[in-house]
Write a structure and sequence with these properties.
The protein is an all-alpha fold. It has helices at 15-38, 54-57, 61-72, 77-87. Helix 3 runs antiparallel to helix 4 (77-87). The longest helix is centred in the first third of the chain and has 24 residues, at 15-38. This is SHOCT domain-containing protein.
């Protein structure tokens, strides 16, 4: 005895692969959306990376140390200007 339109179950074999591809596509879309809106992979807050190197700001390592010492108050303005002038920057 035939059921339905006479094609039987062999007509619908493609439903499983198509369903699997759709589910995997939705999972992938969800992961990509979460990464885009969360700022990328592995980002959990403000990034405290390494301090900028000599090439990052266009200043030499000596000038960066000098700037830090001036910011901490170890050097006064006159001594700071003199040392910057000595460095040639």
């Amino acid at each position: 005895m035939m059921w339905g339109n006479g094609y039987g179950m062999h007509f619908v074999w493609w439903i499983w692969p198509v369903g699997l591809v759709l589910i995997l596509g939705l999972v992938l879309l969800t992961i990509v959306t979460i990464r885009i809106f969360s700022g990328g992979p592995g980002v959990s807050g403000p990034q405290a990376g390494p301090p900028p190197g000599p090439g990052a700001t266009g200043r030499s390592a000596a000038r960066l140390v000098l700037d830090e010492r001036f910011a901490r108050g170890e050097l006064d303005a006159e001594e700071y200007r003199h040392r910057v002038q000595v460095l040639g920057e």
